[in-house]
Design goal:
The protein is 37% helix and 18% strand. Helix 3 links the parallel strand 3 and strand 4. The longest helix has 12 residues. It is globular, with a radius of gyration of 17 Å. The structure holds tetrahydrodeoxyuridine. The site of tetrahydrodeoxyuridine (THU) has 14 residues, from helix 2.
Length: 144
């Protein structure tokens, strides 16, 4: 679909799942994405004795994206320890939305779908700008 060469991305995600630090859940995850400038960024989950501190694989991926100069995500794939496609969790869909928007292609267990279908009616920067850069926001800053 849409000219994306998915196999190298899937292979990279699988490779990264092998580097996961997941001693608590024993559920390694790998993620890889294509950036609009041709880069490939990737991540694995990194857990912590404070269970709630766990970083999803997509967090590492987005970190690499931003630390490497930014850009827009074009296509993303996540997988479990045996290479099966994994749907990004809700929090990670939000994280990915910020850097890929509605057109970001997600390699889901049901096939490749745009982010607009897997995170419908997403909250995003536009919702904030609407208030902070609009009339209400300007009025709200008058006394600051
Ligand atoms: N996990 C991810 O890395 N990405 C997801 O989208 C779903 C969940 C990780 C977090 C945790 O380390 C383990 O999977 C079990 O929830």
């Amino acid at each position: 679909m849409s000219g994306v060469d998915w196999e190298p991305l899937r292979a990279r995600a699988r490779e990264l799942s092998g580097r996961a630090y997941a001693p608590y859940s024993r559920f390694p995850v790998g993620a890889a994405a294509l950036v609009d400038d041709g880069r490939v960024v990737a991540g694995c989950n990194v857990e912590n004795a404070g269970y709630g501190v766990a970083l999803c694989a997509e967090c590492g991926l987005v970190s690499e994206l931003v630390a490497g100069g930014g850009g827009r995500l074009v296509a993303v794939t996540c997988c479990n320890a045996i290479g099966e496609r994994l749907m990004p969790c809700g929090r990670c869909r939000q994280l990915l939305w910020e850097h890929g928007g509605p057109g970001l292609l997600v390699d889901t267990p049901l096939g490749v779908l745009p982010m607009s279908e897997v995170l419908p009616q997403a909250f995003g920067a536009a919702d904030i700008d609407h208030i902070t850069r609009g009339a209400a926001g300007v009025a709200g800053r008058e006394d600051s």
